[in-house]
Records
---
Amino acid sequence: MSLQLLLVLLLHLLCCAQSGNAQTLQPLTVYITPQPASGVRNITCGLDSDHPCWSLADLFASLGNQDYKASQLNMTIYMAPGTYPSKGNINAQLFGLTVTMAAQNESAPTTIDAGFEGGPILVVQEPTTSVPANASTTISVRGVTFQGGNNKNGDGGAISAMITNSSMSITLTNCTFNNNTAGDNDGGAINVVFNTSSYDPAVLARAVLSVDRCLFTANEAKNGGAINTEYTTLLLKHSEFVENSARNGGAINSASAPIHAMHVLFDSNGVNADGGAILFFNQHVSSSTFDYCNFVDNEAGVGGAIYLGQSGLHMRNTNFTNNAARGVGGAVAAKTSPSYLNVSECHLVGNAGSNGGALYFDEANFDITSTSFVQNTAIQGGALYFGYAEGDITNVHIDGNNASLNGGAIFTTFGRFTMNNVTIDNNRAQLGGTMYCSASSVTIPQPVIIDNNTDTSHTGNNGDSTDNSGSANEYENRFNIYCSLIPEYTFCTFFGAKDYIELCGEVPIPQAHSMAKWKLVLIIVGGVLGLGVVAFGIGCLLARSTDKGDKNYDPILTGINTGEDDSSIQDAIDAMDGDIQSSLAIEEDFKDREL
């Protein structure tokens, strides 16, 4: 048992103990049976197995007739085998009660069939006023099947629970929830909501849903095909979720409180949007834990099995097989800080997505250890896709994954991670059979095994593969690690062992610019020609000015030497001055044209 799970249980027991101090509950065992074909209803039924009541409604009415106050009872309701119809067995209000509902014979089917007639079967609805101090609700159900629940006007097709100022514990053991619906609302089978905004573990422990050895099949809702929880801790053990559907969270939609799961199967659940099996949202304070779980054939738009949004998840000994996303994250999509995913001793096989055939990270942190990625497929990042993600990859085997475009094993853009003791082999892509690296920092302290990875657009099979396009935006090497210089002014950097530190070459910033070399040459040649034209023009002007100057001085000198009168000399000076002004005007006009 994890430390987090133990803490939740201890806090919950403390909350229950504090609530129970308010009064001592009277134990009472009562009995119900499906209504017979004939007979007379007994208004004081239920106190012994020979005189059972015919429905839950009859039972609570009978207790009132016999002066029992249900809120003062620790009541065990034994249910005889058979099918209980909707009449008298739906909308049973259990707020403030301590109730155990148990099949009298768990080897024989005991079913409440609501027949889709409207309203959930069991209801925990805290009143808006006059809530007693330390009020609590404790419900335990064993060996009962809930089917045909149809909450037309609210959340939770079979069980609907909502509290604000009290505490609540719902425990389900060996139960089946089949074909329940909440329509356009949340929680096809079960909806449990605690109206709070606190992330204090002591507060979250006031609302707990525990599920052990239960089966959820063919339930549907808008969010959380089987279960929807908000600020409610969800504990799952030895249970199965099969063919449930929703818009988000095909099996479970969980917001603002953790899920702790052990030995749980999620098979063939599906959504139109996010989280084929589970959607986690806003669980960044208390992280969830999954141990020894299996996700098989789940499907979604994003996150074929799991979608993490601002949430943390630790997975150990958990397998993902043949899950698919039409968008990103064939098995898991972790998006938006502070999301993080810790994966240990897991196996991800045959998953598919557009980016990240197995795992997709966008503004999320990760720690992947002792895990294998086999035969996953994507457009980019056959096994792993990192976007603005940071983390560590240790003791990992990435084998036989395929990307139709970039990064057969790994695609990284603005990623920062370390790889230790990693084997990357038999992966395939157009560019970067091993890795497509863009604007990222990768540390490889010790040599890793990179073998038989293929770039289909080049000749490389972990051999010397080169790019023949002449572009300055790409650089490849013998490890089939494709080093992209897109976006511009960025490039991939490797640190650590000497085999890798120069994988992407020494790329100066000017070369990284997207401008082609021929454009740069034209600019330089044009500049030189322009300077030449300016110099030629100035030279012509100076030459012209000098020639005219010699000719214009002759009349003045002649007049002085021959003794001509002052008026003739002044005319010659005026003529020369006119020529000078004309030359200056021409020079100014030339400069203006150049500008």
---
Amino acid sequence: MSQALASANPDSTQPLDRNWRSTPAVMQFVNAMGAGLFGADYNSLTSTRDPISGPALEVLIAVKSRGVRTASKPQEHIAERIANILTNGETITDRFTKAARPARPSDIALLVCRHTTAARYAEELRARRVPVRISEDGWAKSPVVVAARAALAFAANPADIHSGLLLRTLGPDPLLLQAALSAQTDGRLVDDPVLIRLAALSDQMASLPIGAALDLVLSVTGLRLWADSQPDAAGSRADLLRLEAEANEFEGAHRDLKAASGFHGETAKVFLGWLDARAGERDFDRRPDPAANSAEAVEIVTWHASKGREWPITVVAELDSGIEDWPGSTTTRFDALDRIDNMAVVLDSAALVHTPGFAAPEATRRFIEDRRADFEANAKNLLYVALTRARDRVVLEWPGFLKEREDGTPEATNLFHVFMDNCAPQIGTNSLKVGGIDCPAVIKQMPEQVGFTEFANRVVNVAPRFGPARPLAETPLSPWRLQPSQSRSMGKVPETCSIALGEPWSKTVNDAARGTALHLALRTYLNRPDLAPRLLSATSVDEGTLELISERANALKKWLAAEGYTDLAAEIPVLGFTRDGAEIPGTIDLLAIGPKGCLLIDHKSGGSGEGFGPYWPQLSSYAGLLAKLFPQHPLKGLAIFWVDHGRLELADASVPSADPTQIGTTR
């Protein structure tokens, strides 16, 4: 539109011939680039600033693509370069004092094309402790917003158990999910103090304006204080404030407009439905920036959003971004902009241009190529915007990983192609030639593996907190998980009787892989002999060894049957807890069950083959767990089956076993 106005009124326009933003060295690159992109339509600009020391142009050649798995990605190289600029104290010229000073995070902007890519760059910068400002999505799924919506829904309808559970397991002073579900099953959740206070508001919710209702709910639940205690306190508080602003906007909207959209009434339920209906709106899920423009941080913005702004150092990334419309997108076009003096004609020429998507790529290409002139014109404008934001230095992420275009498809498909086709850049030793003009530059080819520099940020932004800061009381720690072999209360190792179940095998190397294979083979021969033919491929054990294991299994099964244990259960997972709450996970190799009780057997490969060896703590712990988990099967005996030695070492169950609640404690 602006171009059409300028073309229609040439006598009323005066092109700029000076630039007040960038240094002469930066403007040399900008003018060379602008002449290449726009030809005779470009007006060269003269810098009004004095020259400064230091590089005006950096080219960081990334040789590995964004999808590489074995090397560093472009975003890692860019984050490392920014961290080095800040850590090494590289200087910029202060905009107000005109004096040179070390660069601060807010002096640097990183320009990207897509919000999804921006998040990846932000992640790498934060990993290096570089503060970042970025417009991120995720407001609707922010914990404080989810908790506040659940609280509002429960206050409006105390029968909404899902909202109550969500609030109490996510919000302030949360309950464990299992505890909350158990409380609901037992009918005790309604006695929760937080939910009682919310339920008491239900009679008022229908008559209160939504803004007042939300304020009351936030006060009753303490969600504002909880937001201040989150890791990102400022961001959480800003998310909550935006929810309150949305409530005020809903309250102020005309009821006829809301009714026309299908929202009748002013209640909390209608407000929550209104929020859900807006979820698909552009930027609706964007999180608010709690620092506005005052944060001391590297700012990550899109190329489009950078228009009209400036920074001392601008890092321009994602030159490999595509320029073509996605199939299924729709844009507008005005064919009579040359008649801008007659707005009625211009409006009559308006058209919607849809780019369809077909299963056949060549059919889609025909529609895309029809709009190529528009794509490339937009790409030129976007390139010029992004590459002219710097005051002192431009840092280019050079996509050296892009493949050469094929002879049959010379058309530009991304921003870098447009830049190459129009500006013909050539990388020299210490320069970048653009349109035949040598621009001094620092040229760096990025290594396959990037370094890792942490920025020691000296700027500390402490959010104000009310009340005295008191340290938390020290709490003694205990293990969260223990193995049964860590028992300390299993008593004396019992005497065993030895039962021969075959001749010992020749000595073999025992390792974890072999032990796992033996266990699998024994379980198969004992419980599912019909699957035995599959063991060769499943275990990689040779046929001779499998035959020996089959004989061992048959001998054990025969002996157990003779003793009355005909029901065999293998690989039983068990889980107990100590008095301090630590988990005790384990697996019982074999539980032989008979009419009078059961026999607990643990398979061992290798070892001495005598008694219980060093495995009594483990076996004793399993026995203690078994009494609680299977009280219907009294334990009659404990045994270790020494597979290699062909011997079953059996002890009577009258021997004291370990108390599961005492595992890991001292006697």
---
Amino acid sequence: MSWAADSGTLAWNVDGTVEVWDTAGARRVFAAEGHKRARSAALSPDGGRIALCGSDGLIQVWSVPEQRRIGLDLDPDLDPDPDPALSVDPEECDGGGRLAFAPDGRLLAVRLESGLRVIDTAAGASSWFSESGLTEFAFSADSTLIGALKRDSLALWRTGLPLPGATESDGVPPVPPVFTLDLPNETPSQLALDTEQGKLRYLRADERTVATVDIGALREPQWSPEPLETEFASPDGRYAVRARGDGDAVRFDLYDLRTDAHLATLPALARSSAGPGDGQEPPTGGFSPDGRLFAYGPSPWEHGDGPVRVRVFDTDRRRALAQYELAGESLSPDVLAPFLVDGKATVYAVNRTGLWELASGRQLADVSSHPTLAVAPDASLAVLGDGSVLALPDGKPVRRLTATGDILAARFSPDGRTLATTDRTGLVTVWNGTAQRRVGVLSPAQGPAPSSRSSPVLALGYSSDSGTFATGDHLGRVRLWDLASLSPLGEPLPTPGDSVREVAFSSNGATLRTQGNHTPVRTHALDPAALVASLCTSLGGGPTRTEWEDHIPDVPYRSTCG
């Protein structure tokens, strides 16, 4: 049985035929007589659509007023053969809570044994949320989030990133959750999402206690299905270069990170729509360790008929310094690392074929792994994605790091005394500055984190004094670490759950900037005084004398928000 409260319609199963009744007029308005013994059904909130899952494992969506089946492409002349993207194991149709429309009536969620499939019934697209063992799910009132419960955890996903035709068997990567929380021994139920208040609620196992979880950080008003403006921050925390598409060109602007003042406009790059991308992928860019130079080039997914151009800009003197033209599609860079060597600009670049020194055009090494590159502050060593450690400037191999698969990200500390690398297991390995000795292995899922699940770390950043470093992973978790003890500093910072692609400290270490693929740059205050002031403001001040005496009478009263 399914009830559409907005329209006063009711659907029920009568001997395998689902009927929809107008309760106000006491009349039948729909009967799915052609569907094979429906085992579960769901009405859209306005009663205009009904989803059915039958004994044959086929999920169908029907227009109730028009008495016709709706194809994913909304073609009224659609061939009656079902779309295979809506076919599931017949056993998946048994039981309640398998199908549900979002409040907007457009999205349909299907709970399967291996996760959730969310289907955009208007656009003909679907997203796959892989999470086995789900017991129930719920949409937020604005249909932007969907949450699901398991016996010992919960997870949230954004619904605004559809993957056309994505199914579990297509090999399409599932959409990652934007929030997860372990709930050991809680057996949660009756999930409810309140995005207006930034709260998530569920009933605990005793069926008397309602738990509330703060998800306010997920209320990101500028979440975009398409990648937003790209920002490159200098390691020393002085500068940022912001790149944005402008028709057939990509514009680059230099800003002072301390004041956010615009300092200069860099020469633009022509953008090509050729290649496997759609012309919207972010460009490649990188600063020298001291922030003096910025090198930038096209996205590695873009290429045209002409040479690939990589430009170098002197940020201190606000002038273009060099331009390199590289022929051939294979030379589109994935990573750029500029340096001043003997007063001349030198740029090391990695793409999917090799490590290059761009000033001379020499290939220093072959690359057959993930296109990762980290260069020591003194430009003496380079680390590649396969773990190779090369001596620069000649590219001679000197050793190989022992890693689990490809290295996804690597970064030397500003003082050159340590190197951090990440791999697909979600672990961060810290080495000494010559990459000869392993110092420690860290897991961003350890410690007082909201979820113990691991996720690849994609972003690494050191403070200017090399005492603290930050990690950002694919699940959107950002953590701070003390380098001396290799231990986490508190809980993960609040984020909108977007996959983190860059983290950067300010020059004085008082703030951390984070950037995701679909959310604007966020600035996190790290200075204790600033954090206390922010907390006092959000709470409207500290406890009054009466409140203090009611809760902690044994401690003398003092003002906590001066």
